[in-house]
Amino acid sequence: VADADLVIVCTPVDQIANVVIRAAAACKPGAVVTDAGSTKGAIAAAVAGKLPPGVAYVGGHPLAGSEKSGVENARADLFAGRVVVVTPDADSPPAAVARVEAFWKALGSRVEIMTADEHDRAVAFTSHLPHALANVLPAVRELVGPTGRVTLVFGCGGDRDPSKRIPMGAVAASRASVVVVTDDNPRSEPPDLIRQAVLGGAEQIPAAGRAEVIEVGDRRAAMELAVSRARPGDVVLVAGKGHESGQEVGDVVTPFDDRVELMAAWDHVHRASSGGQG
């Protein structure tokens, strides 16, 4: 790494700080060391004050990958369209931060800037998605009151932690009024098998306390169904994809924005109910 302008450390998280320190010791002044670890605060604290003058560390975390490992599963488009969180601190040289940003953007990623602590809190929250649903659904129920219904449209992503699918199905079915189980980003997994796992979780809830559960694989159709069934005072909650602008099925990413599609579903249903009048 002696002549490198940018060094990216991609080791297990518990080894990153040590490798960053060792690599930085061999770097030339002006070099930048970054990483791809999923936690940032502990690494930043461990390397603070231990780098040679003129060498900067700027943390990074690409929110991409799959359960598959090894060179044989490498993909040229792995980071295309994916979020990468870059975590400079107050002392990070702007040029060093810009270099790390430019690297990820060259791979097609969308860069978000956070502090290390902000990153770790955000990742901790999104790593507990069943808990997120368990918290948001009661809050929405309070908004609709005793007579309104909460319709939840959601699915689980493929090539991600499959252990969350059954708990998320159970949480959804126990706290929503209607659950429309649909596709998220199936990626390389069969979408119907992902949905079946979620449905299996929903079925764990006794019938007397279980929401009405509907399976609609097509996400656009699922939103339209949810909107079409909504009555005055109801809330339709679409969860899962958030800011994403595409849906990943196999190796193909199709343009799909939940916000745009939900408004389109509302417009279509509204026009149909009013006889096509604007």
Beta-strand content estimate: 15-25%
Strand order of the largest sheet: 9-8-7-10
Identify low-pLDDT runs: none
Rg is 22 Å
Which range best describes the helical content: under 10%, 10-25%, 25-40%, 40-55%, 55-70% or over 70%? Answer: 25-40%
Average of per-residue pLDDT values? 91
Number of helices: 9
State the end-to-end CA separation: 63 Å
User: By helix and strand content, what is the structural category?
Assistant: alpha/beta
Q: Tell me, what's the shape?
A: elongated
Order of helices and strands: EHEHEEEHEHHEHEHEHEEEH
Largest sheet: 4 strands, parallel
According to DSSP, the number of beta strands is: 12
Any overview of this molecule?
The protein is an alpha/beta fold. It is 40% helix and 17% strand. It is built from nine helices and twelve strands. It has a four-stranded parallel beta sheet, sandwiched between helices. Strand 1 (6-9), helix 1 and strand 2 form a beta-alpha-beta unit. Helix 1 (13-25) runs parallel beside helix 2 and helix 6 crosses helix 7 (191-202). The longest helix is centred in the middle third of the chain and has 16 residues, at 129-144. The N and C termini lie far apart (63 Å). The model has no long low-confidence stretch (mean pLDDT 91).
Task: Explain briefly what this protein structure is.
With 278 residues, this protein is of the alpha/beta class. It is 40% helix and 17% strand.
List the helices and strands and how they pair.
Layout (H helix, E strand, L loop, with lengths): L5 E4 L3 H13 L6 E4 L5 H7 L8 E2 L1 E4 L20 E5 L6 H13 L3 E4 L2 H11 L2 H16 L5 E5 L10 H11 L2 E4 L9 H12 L9 E4 L3 H11 L5 E4 L7 E4 L2 E4 L2 H16 L5
Parallel strand pairs: 1-2, 2-3, 5-6, 7-8, 7-10, 8-9
Antiparallel strand pairs: 4-5, 11-12
Helix pairs in contact: 1-2, 5-6, 6-7, 8-9
